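Recap from last week: sequence in, structure out.
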Amino acid sequence: MKASNHSIQNLLKILIGAAWIDGKVQREEQTYLYELAKQNGVADDPEIYPLLHGLRKINTQQCYKAIHAYLGDKPSHADCQELLEAISGLIYSDGTVGIEEAKLLTKIQEIEVTCDVSGICSNNMPDLIYTLYQRWVAVLDKQLPS
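Predicted structure tokens:
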């Protein structure tokens, strides 16, 4: 992902908010977020550093504001897909999908439904959610004793 620092900062705020959305940032989520920030050269950014290290929390409302700032008023299908992929990567990193995380994906689905793809609204989000839950079930099956 090659984007402006401002765009990366907004994306990280969304992802950090998504990590907090279930009440606790898991170790795997923390690692995922730090690596993403490091890869994009913003791990030591004064705005991002306290968020990455749990010195400041992003609440649900702030997360949704960051989504709006990231996508803008007229998001493209590609923007929505990029955001969904980033959030899915975070969600998969700890092997669990919380109810609030699923709600966040649904909210982005609602945004995606309204986006314009050459005059056609495309909505493949149900397939993405289905795949997400299938992976979650597969992880649970591996963790449960036979």
